[in-house]
Amino acid sequence: MDNEQLKSKFEAKYNEYGKMLYKIAFLYFGNSYDAEDALQEVFIRLMYNAPSFKDENHEKAWLIRVTQNKCRDMLKSSKNKNTSIEEIEISDFIKTENDTQLDVIKQVVVLPAKYKTVIILYYYYDYSVSEISKTLQISNSAVKMRLKRGREILKIELEDYGNET
What we know:
165 residues, mainly alpha, 8 helices
């Protein structure tokens, strides 16, 4: 494949999956710099080291897993492990004046990774439990349990909203 074909393929894949993968990465890090770094690594891997895919869904699931794994690896090897809520640059991710929505997103960012991924796919991308199960290569019951525990953590962290008058 020559450089022009590679460039064209890269642009097509980036246009198709870039926004979704960026949001996933952003919700791992809480800032655009690390999210963009992770995304760059994911697309380099797609261009040069991707397996052959059965279909588009297989490719999309592979990209989500690679993004998730890349984010986890970057968090393990960096000082970003303990991102505080105050440091999260939500304005890079979403444009809204709704303080409740911003606070929910900030709490999703600080969730443990295994809960964060299923919450993102289920609530932000409308994946079903079985789609998440196939994408992450875990059982349906594991997905349901991670959703349950993720929601419980979010509920505890966001309890103040129910108490405001």
